[in-house]
Amino acid sequence: ELQQKVEETELLKMELQMLETERVRLSLVEEKLMDVLQLLQQLRDLNVSKRALGKILLSTLESCRDPQPGKAHLFEVLDTLYHELTACELLQSQPLEKAQSRQSLSNPLVISC
């Protein structure tokens, strides 16, 4: 009976470790998603065309067509979209104060398309 309790304890420890790993992964995905949403909000505030945003999204999906081994596909897509959005140069032509006044971001990003 003691051996059975030890085995159950080990299984529970492994399960807890897996849950913690998943929690960290989801936290990273949530952070990246918030970054992407902030960039999209900034572009929307600058009235970027749907066509330009569509091109960015299609470019992202094209580059993430084949998932890389060992990397979570969802995070890979969000990370690529984030980089595609930050490569845009539309906000560089806007005064930074104007972009900041439209929304209060903890770290305003300058982007342009």
Q: How can the largest sheet be summarized?
A: none
N- to C-terminal distance: 67 Å
Uncertain runs with pLDDT below 50, 5 residues or more? 96-113
How large a portion of the residues is in β-strands, by DSSP E? under 5%
Q: Helix proportion of residues, in percent?
A: over 70%
Query: What do the pLDDT scores average to?
Result: 81
Number of helices: 4
Kindly name the structural category.
mainly alpha
> Secondary-structure element order, as H and E?
HHHH
In angstroms, what is the radius of gyration? Answer: 20 Å
Number of strands: 0
Q: Could you say which overall geometry the principal axes of the C-alpha atoms support?
A: elongated
Could you walk me through the main structural features you see in this protein, from its secondary elements to its overall organization?
This is EFCC1 protein. The protein is mostly helical and 113 residues long. Among the domains are: 1-45; 48-66 and 74-83, no CATH class. The protein has helices spanning 2-45, 50-63, 73-87, 96-102. Helix 1 runs parallel beside helix 3 (73-87) and helix 2 packs across helix 3. The longest helix is centred in the first third of the chain and has 44 residues, at 2-45.
